[in-house]
UniProtKB/TrEMBL annotation:
GO terms for molecular function: ATP binding; ATP hydrolysis activity; phosphate transmembrane transporter activity. It comes from Halovenus aranensis. Keywords: ATP-binding, Cell membrane, Membrane, Nucleotide-binding, Transport. SMART domains: AAA (SM00382). This is Phosphate ABC transporter ATP-binding protein, PhoT family. Residues 33-273 form the ABC transporter domain. One of its GO terms (cellular component) is membrane. Residues 1-33 are annotated as: Disordered. InterPro entries: AAA+_ATPase (IPR003593), ABC_transporter-like_ATP-bd (IPR003439), ABC_transporter-like_CS (IPR017871), P-loop_NTPase (IPR027417), PstB-like (IPR005670).
Length: 278
């Protein structure tokens, strides 16, 4: 076994066995992700300022706020995508089931196997539909019963009925909404613990957006989902928890979505939600 495989195995074992108790309601009552005093800089510019919050298991947590307030930066910290940005500097702790993902013994590649990500623009590989979904499974050596796993992922992504007779066709030939669901199928095929979504429906038409929203709600029965969205109505429709980030990379309010939208504690949050600024 290679060093990378050993690190991946250790990381996945840690994720599987550790748990953190949470007071949040719904799901299983556990926090999957906990952040404590997280600060992020890009060179000398601070993007996040002292972020402390918990993301509960098997719920949808929406991250909302105006452009440039740090939502996507926060999302990218969870699976260490910001490691790929040379100017990024991160302080504080982000714990996945009790394990700080920035500990020296954590392999980022193994982490990203447990924390999948879906981006704003659909980005299928220039491969067949089948090979797109199978890619992560093959990389991880989980290629036994591959046909069944590919079909299962496509079914869970609500795409199987539309593509089951064209699995050998290019994923690039699908419509925008189908491509995004293909990317979701690719993300869930290796069975991650958490799915991060960065405005997954912003480039889609209303019909495709509705399908993605329905899919996100279904996925929350199996996975912990964190989604960045600029769409207030979307956040209100599909999320259980909402985090409101405002200018300066500050987390101003976090709690049950219904309370955030109907009776927020902070005037700045109410002003943002009602469109008085942002």
């Amino acid at each position: 076994m290679s060093l990378e495989d050993t690190q991946a195995s250790e990381m996945e074992s840690t994720i599987d066995t550790a748990s953190v108790t949470s007071e949040s309601t719904g799901g299983t009552g556990e926090s999957v992700i906990e952040t404590e005093n997280v600060d992020v800089w890009y060179s000398d510019t601070q993007a996040l300022d002292d972020i402390t919050m918990e993301i509960p298991e098997q719920q949808v947590t929406a991250l909302i706020g105006p452009s440039g307030c740090g939502k996507s930066t926060f999302l990218r910290c969870i699976n260490r995508m910001n490691d790929l940005i040379e100017s990024a500097r991160i302080e504080g702790e982000i714990r996945l089931r009790g394990k700080n993902v920035y500990d020296d013994d954590v392999d980022p590649v193994a982490l990203r196997r447990s924390v999948g990500m879906v981006f704003q623009e659909p980005n299928p590989f220039p491969k067949t539909i089948y090979d797109n979904v199978a890619y992560g499974l093959r990389v991880q050596g989980k290629d036994d019963n591959l046909d069944e796993k590919v079909e299962d992922a496509l079914r869970r992504a609500a795409l199987w009925e539309e593509v089951n007779d064209q699995l050998d066709s290019s994923g690039l030939d699908l419509s925008g909404g189908q491509q995004q669901r293909l990317c979701i199928a690719r993300a869930i095929a290796p069975d991650p613990d958490v799915i991060l979504m960065d405005e997954p429906a912003s480039a889609l038409d209303p019909v495709a957006t509705s399908k993605i929203e329905d899919l996100i709600e279904d996925l929350a029965s199996e996975y912990t989902v964190a989604i960045v969205t600029h769409n207030m109505q979307q956040a209100a429709r599909i999320s259980d928890k909402t985090a409101v980030f405002l200018t300066g990379g500050k987390l101003v309010e976090f709690g049950d979505t219904e309370k955030i939208f109907e009776n927020p504690e902070h005037q700045r949050v109410e002003d943002y939600i009602t469109g008085k600024f942002g």
